[in-house]
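Why predict the complex rather than its parts? Because the way molecules touch one another can change local conformation, and only a joint prediction can capture that. The input here totals 560 residues.
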Amino acid sequence: MAKDLQKSFKDLTAVNSINFSIDEGEMFGFLGPNGAGKTTIMRMIQCVSPVTAGKLEVMGMDVNTQQREIKSFMGVVPQENNLDGDFTVYENLLVYSRYFDIPREEAEKRIEELLDFVHLQEKRDVMTESLSGGMKRRLVLARALINRPRLLILDEPTVGLDPQARHLIWEKLRGLKKQGVTIVLTSHYLDEVEKLCDRLVVMDYGRILVEGSPAGVIEEFIGSDIVEAENNPKLLECLEKKEASYEVIGDIVHIYADNARELSEYLLMECSLSKISARPATLEDVFLKLTGRRLRE
Amino acid sequence: MKLVDYFRVPGISSRSFKVWQRNKDVFMKDIKLNFLPPFLEPILYLIALGFGLGKFVESIDGIPYARFIAPALIAVSVMYASFFECSYSSYVRMYYQKTFDAIIATPLTIEDVIAGELLWGATRSVINATVMIPVIALFGLIDMKYSLLIILFALLGGLLFAAIGMCFTALTPNIMSLNYPVLLFITPMFLFSGTFFPLSALPLPIQYFAIAFLPLTHIVNVIRSLSFGILEFSLLFDIAWVLFVSVILLILSINLMKKKLIV
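Output of the joint prediction:
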């Protein structure tokens, strides 16, 4: 739960007075271009970055005063892998369990379960640096679960992974959600957020632009479908006449529609178009519409 | 952060011990390699300087040269062990391995982490002193009467140089720049703290400078006296100096690191 949350660095306001509330047991996504303030919010929730102004409560506890309690109930998958390179896979989990004061016997039991859970049993005695990117990510996930967290924070959990590894991680996250773990994630993979999250916010320049369920947000800003057609002046004229909502992107025109079939027929008949294609609208369309197509950073 | 904030006593919990334990576990993985330097170095130095160079050196205040430098070797090792542990090694853990980031996502705070690192640095000093004393004793160059006191004092000296190393880790812009304090501070101390010749051989102003600003001077003084089997009242001055500066720098180093890492 955040109220008027704000974070300023020397000459930059990274998070500008935002409000959000995440329910227990839900999967909640933060979307936004690079520099939108997502990671800064994650770091404030993790109690590793002090709040400049406003209020931020995690599991009903204040991040300024109850850091140790919050952190003991939380698991973190950071953007950058920070496994302990001086240890093997097994030792990484064991050493980490000590930071949570988990008794040795209990920790050993949990580590076996977690190694099974992320399919790393065969790699248990391998130093972390010789793991593949996907294995490292799975180990970071296992490490985040060592304290049986009630809240799991994932900052771009599947960045740089192949489709197999991504699907495995998704499957594991769904499993955790079923167990009642609250999950907060950021991602640039919008299909990922669309598939996983119950609710999401799209951020830019430290502010929240929209909030809602993936389907709701798409419906609200795009409609259910998108018709893509080649750009020509005649088409635009035709669209103006129909008062359709559309966007020109270079050679292509995106026309937003609630009924793609009807629109396609109209375009083919009335605008004498030959090549068009219709597809369901995605979160990516919403994202680009809201945050623009200009490159960041 | 105001100046006074840098000297505010930080809140540290017993969880610091977990960080100490982590570093100890890594150390134990390469225990043979890690034990070699404190074992071999005094032998090499004693042969080359003590018995080689020593042949051409008159005894110092009636003490044979090898016996004069033997305790200084322990003192230098105390300095090197914790300084390098809390400068280069801590920097690598902090910056390259992101170990600190991973740990502060758990109930440990950054203060706990740094305190654990400092304590581990001092432990390295104690380990070195503990290994070196029997090696030097083999050459018959140390009175074992107060060797336990030497080990205890190595902990204090270790904490001092750990704090010094950690301050530089907090202030350095990159790992290469850590070469400056080594070149401008640690190496001069190695040479001019009454280690290989008595402080009294230097001009008086430099002697005062060494006593006021070169911590190793005091470490050498205490360890030398103890290794001769002498327990004198004047050592209290050295111990008080080390204790006072240690407390200040330990607090300062934790606050500096906190400022660097928590943004």
